[in-house]
Amino acid sequence: MSTEFEWSEEQRTLRGVVTDFCRRRTASTGDQAGFDRDTWTQLAAGLSVAGLTVDEELGGAGASLLEAGIVAEELGRTLLRTPLVPTVGLAVTALAHCGQDSDARDALTRIAAGEAVATAALADEQGILDPSKPPLAAREEDGVWYVDGVSGYVLEGGRADLVLVHATGGGAEPMLLLVDAGASGLTRDEVVALDHGRTQARLAFDGVPATRLVADRPVAEVVRAAVDAAATLLALEQTGIAQAMLDLSVAHASTRMQFGRAIGSFQAVKHRIADMYVEVEHARSAAYHALWALVHGADDPALASSLAFATASEAARKVTRGTVQVHGGIGFTWEHAAHRYLKAAQANSTLLGGDRLHSRRLAELVLAKGAEVGA
To answer: Is 74 exposed, middle or buried (0-12, 13-18, 19+ CB in 10 A)?
Structure first.
């Protein structure tokens, strides 16, 4: 994106390649939970999606979150489920702030090659996420770090190969640790989610050996940066979901005949679809702006990411509900795609702290700015 909201030729090409890849795959029907590992491997390694934001010297593409956002939007449009958000949004963003740590660099190399799916345990057992309050405890014994505690609703926590852990111990500063998913003492229990395409898990750590990472800034800032990146990718996914359902609704309203005319000619249907269009445009504008703000470090990235998450989630919920209404009886059936998109939109809005966290952040940031202006 050379200037805000203007995509480069390379970025448009990336969108076309990813769109073609997604359309050649069949989205989950809801019968099988989770992402398909082979599909992710092809995306991660074949199209370099996992390593988009990883440095070239580590096997990545050396691109930015802008490119990852393009991918997220197309994945949402086709409802092709992948671990993009936890792997690229959370883990890679955090690991990139540990660029001088050899273990972090090794993990980034594995992720970029498509050899490892990564996630981050950032929330407490109830799923409450606060970057300033580590949910887990760490202790050092004979030079080895061990992690204890429970983290709930970890994205792809039951299927990830690497888990980035936010912990504190012995009065020390919060720290980031890297845990191998196969390590002894780690129990992973997947929880039943509304959206079967994206799994979550309860991770219980009982003296799990871990590697402490050295970050280039305070860990709370690293966690916030990771949450902002992941929230923005989710906003793009929600935008893709909303756009797909708007397109489906327009097509149906143009061809479904009632009383000898297309239902799209009726004023009530026209108004509903017009409202859906406005929601999609609001979501896209907020999400694209958040990408730009995060990449360029301008216009308060934290505020932009939370605004994008809240705006796009609300839009996705409204548009998917509207799609069900436009389609009438068939929109309520299990065979129709609308229910899968509706569930995905609703479930996405609860992730990464959900509307509660991001609405609170928005209020705090806006009030703080108001106080600065008043002073």
So the answer is: buried
Quick check: helix, strand or coil at residue 146? strand
| CATH annotation of 9-112 | 1.10.540.10
CA 287 – CA 352 distance, rounded (Å): 16
Which CATH class, in words, describes the domain spanning 220-374?
mainly alpha
Q: How confident is the model at residue 226 (pLDDT cuts 50, 70, 90)?
A: very high
- Per-residue tokens: 223: 């966690």
Confidence of residue 374 (pLDDT cuts 50, 70, 90): low
CA distance 285 to 276: 14
- d(CA 78, CA 117) in angstroms, rounded, equals 21
CA pair distance 197, 44, nearest whole angstrom: 18
Q: What's the whole-model pTM score?
A: 0.93
Query: 118-217 in CATH: which number?
Result: 2.40.110.10
Task: Say if residues 81 and 27 touch (Cβ distance below 8 Å).
Answer: yes
Where are the CATH 2.40.110.10 domain residues in the chain? 118-217
List the structure tokens of 172. 């020390």
All CATH 1.20.140.10 domain ranges of the chain, comma separated, are: 220-374
Q: Report residue 91 CA to chain centroid gap.
A: 11
pLDDT of residue 1: 46
